[in-house]
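Checked the freezer inventory, then went back to the computational side. Two predictions to log before the end of the day. The first one is the construct we discussed on Monday; recording sequence and tokens without edits.
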Amino acid sequence: MTEQQPSSAPNPKISSEPQQPAVKRENTLLNIGFNILLPILVLNKGKGLLGPYLEPHFENIAVPILLIALLFPVGYFVYDYFKRSKYNLFSILGLVSVLMTGGIGILEIPTQWFAVKEAAIPLLLGIAVLVSLKTPYPLIRTLLYNPEMIDVEKVQAQLEVHNSQAQFDQLLTRCTWLLAASFLISATLNFVLARWIVVSPSGTEAFNAEVSKMMLWSWPVIAIPSMLIMMFALLRLLKGIKQMTGLTLEEVMHGASDAKQ
């Protein structure tokens, strides 16, 4: 099916997105390796691997080991940005979280602030998602209803044909609340898990090991429930699009028709 031209979209804020060149896909293996596996390895094995090189220069080698571990996600953020010329809200918040973790360890800030930091970022993101509903640029259009994943132009054209825009806006609002709920759950679980696992004084080897354990457990305990809620929100969005426009999944999702063939 021939795609609609950008100039025919009813919503100018949305129509400008598809005109941008296609963005390279992120390398998932590199993402996991640099953001999770390598930092965990350094935090757990850093003393044995790097201790002989660091001990002559540092009285407390736990701090430089923490910094080396955090260099991997920071380096990946810079590499990915220059390679794909793109960053998103999640990658920025992830970088901020990494830098704050380093600051807590270096400055030896009381450990309980690590739990506050872990909860604050998803909580602020959830609040931002809700507040954005009152702006011309709701974050739901970035997180779920975005032109990289969904043929927004085609959907908008069919919504206009079926006179369903108001009903669709209500659907986006409901999905936004689901997203906000996922971030609230993530914030709560982050705080509980951090308070349970990370208890040693910051700037110590035990603190590094506990941060490593926190990173490992955060995926099954935090990421999976949040992702399930986000997937539920996406499915509700796609079901609503089908009901309001008559478009099939293959017609709505970019690449779905090619995958089916």
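The second is the one RB wanted added to the comparison set:
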Amino acid sequence: MKRYHDIAGDGGSKILEQVVEQRARITQGLAGVRHLVAVGSGKGGVGKSTLTLHLAHALRSRGLRIAILDADFNGPSQARMAGVQGGVFVPGRQKVALPRTSSGIGVFSMGSVIPESEALEFESAATGESHTWRATREFALLTDVLGSFEWGELDLLLFDLPPGAERTVQYADYLDPRTSFVLVTVPSDVSRGVVARSAAALATRAKRVLGYVENMSGYYCRDCRGIKPLFDSGASSLDLPRLGAVPFDPELARHCDRGLPLAELADTPVGLALDEVAVRLLNRLEDQPR
């Protein structure tokens, strides 16, 4: 019995030529991107998407050219948080201009295309749930997105990955080999245990894990100007470089819900913590072998 990869050619369907063409378009489109960084977790509810956007702003404030690709097609949140809702995406040979925030960060999110009252559905090739087929369709869409937009000259392109340890590994297998990973957790044993599984799986694929960020390390009390605990401080640590700890600011949620600019949060404990994460991230990227 032959496996798919044993078959010479594609039986006249020209699938191989299409794949090669798509990959060539992606390579050409990302040629001006210096660093590719995927932000994942393996655990939902850790504030990964919020952290991705705020990290992008911290990097942008340092003069870097930044863009975000919201790879969570079924639960996109970057469009609302970044204030770029409302748009059209028609994949084709003509490159599409990337939507940008008021601070100049490029953002693509399916939330810009599909109203929040509607769901993005991928038709199944079989009766019932077909996870393999669904993942294939999702990556086909990701290929269209990567190949259709004019990414231009960027210092960093951040991928906001969907939740789930398996999803993190699937995207690791798909994304450009240059891609480095940042994992996000909260200071609880449950969260760190799930994230540790993602880190272990990525290690088997020789993917570069730059480190992890401890999100919601506490919450910023605007009345007393102090940081108060949210989780048990006795949680175990991850066997990865720690890029920083970021407290939660209730004002941050208001900005994200309304798509407001984040510049006014720059001098808060959250903004200062994210700037430290940005510096450590850049240092880790520069230390990585090419």
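For RB: The longest strand covers residues 208-221. The chain has one domain: 35-287. Let me know if you want it refolded.
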